[in-house]
Amino acid sequence: MDLELMINSFPKLLNASIITLKLLSVSLIIGLLIGLIFAILRLNKNIFINRFAYGYSYVFRGTPLLVQIFIIYFGLGQIEYLRSTFLWIILKEPYWCAIIAFALNTGAYTSEILRSAFQTIKPGMIEAGKSLGIPSKIIFYKIQIPIAIRQSLPAYGNEIILMMKGTSLASTVTLMDLTGVAKYIISTTFKPIEVFIVAGGIYLFMTFIIHNVIKFLEKRYGFSQ
Amino acid sequence: MELLAFGKTGWGDELFIATLMTIAVSITAMLIGFFFALIFTPLKLSKNKFFNFIANTYTTIIRGVPELLVIYLFFFGGTGAVMYVASIFGYNEYIEINAFITGAFAIGIISGAYSTEVFRGAIQSIDKGQFEASKVLGLNKFFQFFKIILPQTLRLAIPNLSNVWQITLKDTSLISVTGLVEIMRQSYVAAGSTRDPLFFYSFAAVLYLLLTFLSLKLINRLEIKYSRGY
After folding, report:
1. B145 and B66 Cβ atoms separated by less than 8 Å
2. pTM, whole model, 2 decimals?
């Protein structure tokens, strides 16, 4: 055990975890929006819209996140047309490519979580709203969405933790996030166990915090059953 | 389509072999995972606090730390650990472990943590009466477990194990960082030498989709088989 290395690498790794947290929070916000939109599309009765939304979530859940990042980072740059548009400003940055991939990935999982939450809402609640003469738009925003969000809190908490682990893949497209820096230190010092303990400890700490925040929210906003 | 031709001109045969490699690594990892689950599930269910602690530490660490970090640990640390063990037995030559074993082991440990949770949940949800009834009938422990408890556990566990399989299959793409030539690695090589990353990575995505789709079909059959009588 090389304690000195562990102490020396701790500030570096802690610094790198800021990038991890940034990647995580930005992609979660975009992903939640995407997920909500696609969950609503899934509930649409039009078969084409429905199929499209299902196809999106099927493809992104059925392929590894690594493939998705590589397609966006290495693949899209190949299209000549894209290089001339404003999109290129975003797509040439590994940071934004990683965020796009993460957001699309978590969006697919989130859409599934929200869809099943929408479907478990008891029809009686919607009927009650209707019989009170509330317009269906307001029923949707004020009754269905709040219930669905509460219903999906535990599953979404898992998704946040999975996504946090997913951000480690940013290191494969040259970003120096927590895993990227950990790998760099391992490959220069050849002390994998020490670095793993420190980096893994930081990840576990973040998992612990997320887990408890979600638990708190569940207690606060969940149904008292 | 020329790019996918079999033989020397295309990448078809290389990608086919790479796909078989992905399947082989996934199955090996899944089996290693079952082995770990076999050890840790009883520890989780045991009444002994210390055993509980060990099993909980294992599943918590694996489920809270990124897969890639675990793979780096094994990739850089695996050789050292094996050589250390070997040196205790007096063998001091350099030992190289191949990427397949390191990769399958790393993914297997990850998959094992998920399997452990699945089996724990399944065994806990079996009615207590089943255990008691099999005891009352005077069946021996071995018979009790394999003929009464296990078949019921499997019925409950298969849908969740199917999820674990999907996660394991997708996680094997991460082994490409160690140089094992599976789908991801082969696509990387092909993309590099043909300068057509969009095509090859998209094709890799199609291959993974195909694998997940086909395995789901197969698992559905198993599910039907084990749900007979329900």
Report:
1. no
2. 0.89
Of A67, A186, A200, the CB nearest to B201: A67
**Residue from the list A62, A168, A169 with its beta carbon closest to the beta carbon of B208:** A62
Residue-wise pLDDT for A92-110, tens only, equals 889 999 999 999 999 999 9
Residues near A3 by Cβ (< 8 Å), separated by ≥ 6? none
Q: Is B51 on the interface with A (CB under 8 A)?
A: no
b/e burial code for range B14-41 (CB count within 10 A of at least 16 → b): bbeebbebbbebbebbbebbbebbeebb
- ipTM entry: 0.87
pLDDT averaged over consecutive 10-residue blocks of chain B (230 residues)? 71 90 96 94 91 94 92 86 81 79 93 94 88 86 83 88 94 91 92 89 95 92 81
Partner-chain contact A172 B177, CB within 8 Å: yes
Return the CATH class of domain B13-226. mainly alpha
CA geometry: angle at B55 spanning B99 and A10, to 5°?
65
**Residue of A64, A75, A186 lying closest to B173 (CB–CB):** A64
The pLDDT assigned to A225 comes to 47
The answer to whether A67 contacts B205, with C-beta atoms less than 8 Å apart, is yes
For CA atoms A92, A93, A94, A99, the dihedral sign is: negative
Q: Do B68 and A171 touch (CB under 8 A)?
A: yes
Mutation to test the A interface, candidates B57, B59, B63, B76, most A Cβ within 10 Å: B76
Nearest CB to B65; choose among A66, A169, A200? A200
Q: How far is CA A88 from CA A22, A80, A98, A101, B69, in A?
A: 22, 10, 14, 15, 31
Q: Does B41 touch chain A (CB under 8 A)?
A: no
Q: Is the pLDDT of residue A52 over 70?
A: yes
Structural domains in chain A, CATH included, are: 3-221 (1.10.3720.10)
Query: Which chain A residue's Cα is nearest to B199?
Result: A75
Helices A192-221 and A3-43 cross at an angle (nearest 10°) of 40
